[in-house]
Amino acid sequence: MRHLHTRTARRRVVGTLAAGLLCTIGLAAPALAAPAEDAASAQDVAPAVDDGLALTPPMGFNNWNSTNCRAEFNEDMVKGIADIFVEKGLKAAGYQYVNLDDCWALQSRDANGKLVPDPVRFPKGLKAVADYVHSKGLKLGIYTSAGTKTCNEAGFPGALGHEYSDAQQFADWGVDYLKYDNCNNQGVDARLRYTTMRDALLAATRTTGRPIVYSLCEWGENKPWEWASEVGHLWRTTGDISDNWGSMLSILKQNLPLAQYAGPGHWNDPDMLEVGNGGMTDTEYRSHFSMWSIMAAPLLIGSDLRDASDATFGILGNKEVIAVDQDPLGKQGTVLSSEGGRWVVAKEMKDGSRTVALFNESGSAQRVATSARAVGLPAAGAYTVRDLWQHKSYNTAGAISATVPAHGTVLVRVSTDAKWAKNPPAVELGLDGSLLVEAGKPVKLTSTVTDLGRTAATQVSVKLSGPAGWAVKATSPADAHVLPTGRSLRTAWKVTAPKGTPDGSYDLTLKATYRSPTGARAESVLPLTASVVVAPPSGVSSLGDLPWLSTTNGWGPVERNTSNGENEAGDGNPMTVNGVVYAKGLGVHADSTVEYFTGNACETVSAQVGVDDEEGNDGSVAFEIWADGTKVASSGVLTNAQAAQAISADVSGAQLVRLVVTDGGDGSTSDHGDWADAQLTC
To answer: Which of 81, 100, 263, 472 has a 20 to 30 A CA-CA distance from 136?
Structure first.
């Protein structure tokens, strides 16, 4: 993983020095072995998985994503987070660990080789901080690296060659959790480095009686899921997360296939939560939290809780979703389907129920569907469906289905509950037709309300509403006296945005109200997003200068007329492919999608595509052009050794054009691609 250093810098410092250099830097090989007095006992240490720790995924806080190495990371902040855990109900919801990340130490060890907490940040030392956190009924975590230095550019001391001394210090201070990073590792075998620290932690536990949860943070580079269950309690499966939809989605897709490796005491870790950091919408953050929970991932808050919004606390504190993550059976959810970005992920629960995530990765509302039998439940006349975000229960004849908003997740818990009939029937809302709106021009839409329940829905009424000033009119009946199981109410609508409405995204809401057979009132709400669009100008335009509809990107934002750069907008360099510099285009990082409205008015898309020359960018990528859901051109896999390749496509008659970049399949995390000289002809 790691943080403030750049991805390219990470590749420079990790694994680039041969093991033979250890003597040059004063690290003889025996430094990795246990001290003489501990050598015998270290040989028969039980694997960490057998020690009874982390039987459910760890929950807590880590400061890095919100404060990095800034001066505000200090004793007062750490104590304040502990206070907030108690005051805001996070402790009661299950969060335990208040974890310090990099920059807590001085840059040099003392004369005895011991780590020294920064006296400016932590004037009373770390034992005092641990004592305070413990006084709140919480636990303290700490960070170091399995290398000579940590990952921060300032170069704080790492634990390579000091494992037993450092582990003893951590235990003496009262540390309960260690995050062990992977920078400056001098080419030493990963399994050896991480196993040595395991043994050191267990030795420290024997002398102090303090057990320490052990988090391996080697970014999934050595497939830790295949070996780390005998070493630590959780292991990173991916590179660093960043606070944007593309990064979260990329990491999610890397972690989902690893379900077989997770279980009590040994967890796949797709990195910390970004919920509340501001780079995603609340809908996207609910998806983030839902998917981490169904994957039985550690839930480590990465936002600054001192100024978090009520919405952030509402997401992080959702006890019904947390219960999915913390289910004692310890199953990670498995993927049942993912066609077209419509994901169904199901997780077996200890009580026999199934939690099901209907997840929509696409940029428009999509219907996502499965059934109770498909997710592993036995045959039954009906089932209870509990919506974990609405906190409401319904009955279903067996269908588990919803129209899911763009980037949204419907998270439900389904059970063979004998009391299903006390709940109103579940209904599914849908909307057919394009939500791309040109100001002043009406669009036609059709809504559906479908009864999924075993019981009928009665007195059904549906309403579509839009922003103030928009004309929204039903042109066919919007109510039904009764909807039996499986029947639908279809209503036609005409929607017009006023002339002069600026382009951008606008909220619409489709709402159905109805009654159950017992007369209980129920409702279902589908939030939607309409995009007011403007057709591109006639002639040839640079795509780096045109407004896009949406973007996703594997790291940081898509950049206009520069390379992708790092994690912040505008930090790219001139686009350069195989030594040739390009002034115009798009800089992206796989996996990436950039979508444009072309309004049936354009003919061709063309570009020079390739892997950017940025230092350390050694990955491979493939470029694709899509028109209205059909792939119309592909570059094949390109590497950083190749010159830019020409790509073009006929997009005549298309309403939407998507530029897609995928990972070339080499597993690299340095996948910068350039759409150089990208042009649209209309």
So the answer is: 263
Sign for the CA dihedral angle at 72, 76, 82, 88 comes to negative
Whole-angstrom distance, CA of residue 213 vs CA of residue 62: 14
Give yes or no: 432 in active site: no
In eight-state DSSP terms, residue 33 is S
The catalytic position among 181, 271, 304, 325 is 181
The yes-or-no answer on residue 101 being catalytic is: no
Given this model, what pLDDT does residue 668 score? 61
Categorize the per-residue pLDDT at 669 as very low, low, confident or very high, splitting at 50, 70 and 90: low
Q: What is the mean pLDDT of residues 672-680?
A: 95
pLDDT tens for residues 53-78?
999 999 999 999 999 999 999 999 99
pLDDT given for residue 569 in this prediction? 81
Average pLDDT over the chain reads 91
To 10 degrees, the CA torsion angle through 15, 18, 23, 27?
A: 20
Q: Which residue in 166, 176, 240, 417 is the catalytic one? A: 240
Pick from 660, 522, 517, 664: which is nearest to 596 by CA? 660
| Residues near 309 by beta carbon (within 8 Å), at least 6 away in sequence | 276
Burial of 248-282, coded b for 16+ CB within 10 Å and e otherwise, reads bbbbbbbbbebbebbbbbbbbbbbbbbbbbebbbe
* Structure tokens that stand for 468 in this block: 């103030």
At residue 20, does pLDDT exceed 60?
no
Closest CA to 501 of 473, 547, 467, 536: 467
Task: Output the pLDDT for position 529.
Answer: 93
Mean pLDDT computed over 596-612: 95
Cα distance between residue 78 and residue 84, in whole Å: 10
What Å distances lie between residue 474 and 84, 505, 514, 612, CA to CA? Answer: 48, 22, 18, 51
**333 token code pair:** 């959810």
Q: How many Cα atoms within 13 Å fall on the side-chain side of residue 294?
A: 30
Looking at residue 7, what is its pLDDT? Answer: 34
Q: Within 13 Å of residue 186, how many CA atoms lie on the same side as its CB?
A: 25
Q: Give me the residues paired with residue 382 across strands.
A: none
Nearest CA to 383 among 295, 454, 487?
A: 454
| Helix axes of 163-173 and 125-135: crossing angle, nearest 10 degrees | 50
Q: What is the pTM of this model?
A: 0.88
Indicate the burial class of 121 (C-beta count within 10 angstroms; 0-12, 13-18, 19 or more): buried
What is the distance, to the nearest Å, from the Cα of residue 107 to the centroid of all Cα atoms in its chain? Answer: 32
Helix (H) or strand (E) holding 581: strand 580-582
Least confident of 255-269, 377-391, 559-573, 583-597: 559-573
Sort strands 139-145 and 177-181 into parallel, antiparallel or unpaired: parallel
